[in-house]
Structure formats: structure tokens, C-alpha cells
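Database export, one record per block. Field names are fixed; values are copied verbatim from the stored entry.
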Amino acid sequence: MSRKHFIESEKQMTYLWTSEAVSAGHPDKVADQIADAILDAHLAKDPFARVACEVTLTTNFVLLTGEITSIHSFDELEYQRLVRQVLCEIGYDRPASSFDGNTVEILNKIKGQSPEISEAVTRTDGEIGAGDQGIMFGFACVESPVLTPLTHWLSFEVVRLLEENIQQGRQQDRWLSPFLPDAKSQVTVLYEENGTPLAVDTVLISVCHARHISLPELRQCVEQIVCSRLMNEPLFHQTKWLINPAGEWHIGGPAADTGLSGRKIVVDNYGADCQVGGGSFSGKDPTKVDRSAAYAARHVAKNIVAANLATKCQLQLSYAIGVVEPISIRVQTFGMFNRQIVTGDAALSVMVAQLVSFTPKAIIERFGLRKPIYRTTASGGHFGRPSFPWEQLDLVEQFLDYFGVSNRVPPLKTV
């Protein structure tokens, strides 16, 4: 922000806030999709498989690492077939995409899970101990229709429009879309000091493109496919659009930049609006609370906001390895709770602790997490997508009943 803009914003009591998103063809997201595809493949054969898969990609090379223990053992050909299938489905299926899944070298260094970790998780009473220590966060707010931060949601909407065009333009023998799979977006919103969004200030779009598409042609394509779909919305009237500000971009994906699974944890969560516990989601089976408890925390936070108990809610959980119950549960609403119903964060924290079980077994059973559902989460965001079970609004009535106000809460409003 320029000094002049900063001074003017200070007078108006406003601020700028930014989030980013990346496409399925971004090298880190490619790695995430491979890791979660391997997880899904094992869960399809053995719902109780223990999987912690990591993936690294660089020019013409894929490295599989991590720890997997399952009653079904995959051989080298099965892993190679799976990796190539994921790469080709993303769009890395021909030399023109700079990274060809049909010919890339694949090295498998996956090993078995540590028996000490396994013993800590598996309990004789049928319960499941947490697969590791850690802290997890869930978040929700009324800024977007899906109850995620506005900047985060809009960033993914931009990427979704690009990917929609890529999928429509892909042919077996031709690539009709001007875009290649690797892309990034960044959205900056102007807010009032109280957190009310006033306008979309800047949208940055960087997308890899075919060599026969010139930079002016690319920018025109983005304007037609993305900008025209958004600029008529109320918040976009004076938006600045930055399209490939670095110039032409022909070489993308793992050929241009090394990809690593689990690296895009801020993009995977809620942008910078919510704290991040530190553990990634990708390639991990649901006994790893880094993943499953983060889903449970989102589920509760979203239901609190949907019940109009708060307009902004963050839930923190913490666990000890091998221990069934969480060590701590805390709800924070940052003063944005419904003062007509509850007394504050403490009351909400007590309510959540009394009504919701956060043991790994309870979370797994509540969301059906032993099913092969994870590859779809690996690109496009883990939150704010209605098809995911942790996005369901099935706790609203319970939460309202707890405070005895089931029929006296106005409908939820979003901006």
C-alpha cells in the first residue's frame, strides 16, 4: 500500500486484506493430489490402513516417501500406474504441458509405519489414540455464502473459473484452452475497521499458457473467462485487475518449480484469517488428528455461525499422541458473539465440550472418514465445499436448544 493510500485509509478507518489460491496444476497441489490418491487407493482396499504419504516432484521426476501399513500391499507397478493417472487427469499428459505423466520417472521410497506409533494409536478398548500431538483450528464467518473468509472464497472462485475452462477445452488429440494447468490467484479486499467488506480492491491472476497465445491474447482471454463473470458483482465496481504481471508464462508445474505435499497449508485452511496449527492434511489417514480434528473443528465453528450464535468463530483443539480425548477445547468469537443469547466465548466453549465428542474414533465415525474421499479435497480447498461431510449443518438445532432459543433466532445473513 502506498503512503498516500495508507493515510487516506486511516482517515476512513479502513484496511486491506489479502488471500491467495492455487490451481490443481500448481506443483505443490499436484504433490498433494498424488499423496491423497495413494491414501484413497489404500483405504479402498483396507479402511483401517495407516497412511502418511509424502510426495516431491521436480523436472521429469516424482519421489514417493512416507510410512504406510496395510493388509494390502501395493507393488511398484500399482504405484506407478496411480501416479501417472493423477498427473494425466490434472492435465500433465503431453509434452506441451512441460511435465508429461506418461514418461516421468517415479521412485518409490515408502516404508512401513513405526510399530511404536501404531501401538500408541491402537487401543484394546476399541478407542483410537491420537496419531500425534498437535493443535488444530476450525473457522467460520459470515463474509461469504459458504461461511469462509471473503478473500479466501473469492481467490478460489477465480481459480475455479480458470480450471473450468481448462477442463472444457481438453481434447484427446488437442488442447483447446489457452490455459495450461498451473495457475495462482490473489484477492485483496478493502474492509471497514469493524470487518465489513467494502470493495474488492485488487485481483491478481497468474496463469500458465500455451506458447501460441501472446500475452495480450492471454489477458483478453482471462478478461472474458474470469473478469467478466465477476466485475458486475457489487463489490467489483472499481477493482484493479493484474493479469500475468510478470509477462508470458509458458513453463509451469513441476518442470518450473519443485512441488512438495503438505506445503500449502494456509491455502488449504482459511487463508491468513485463521491461525494454522502447523500440521498438513495431505496423504494422512484419519487417525492423524492433524487432518480429522481440523475437519471436526471446522464443522463445529460453521454450525455455531450458522446458528447465529456468532458472526465469526475460531475453535482450537489440542491432542497428545496416544491419548483419546483432546487436551483442550477453546472457542473464540473475538467479541462477535450473539449477546442476546450467550455470555461469551466461555459459554460457547462449555457448550461444545458438552455436546460434541472430539475423540478420533468419534470424528472418524461422524464423517465416514475411512472411505476413499480424500483426493477431491487435495485441490480447491478443504473447507467451504458443501459436498464434504464436515460442512453439514446438523448441529444447529442442538446448539440452539442448549441455550433454549430454538425458534427465536433470526435467519443467518451473509454479505
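Remark 1: The chain has a mean pLDDT of 91.
Remark 2: The two ends are 25 Å apart (CA to CA).
End of record.
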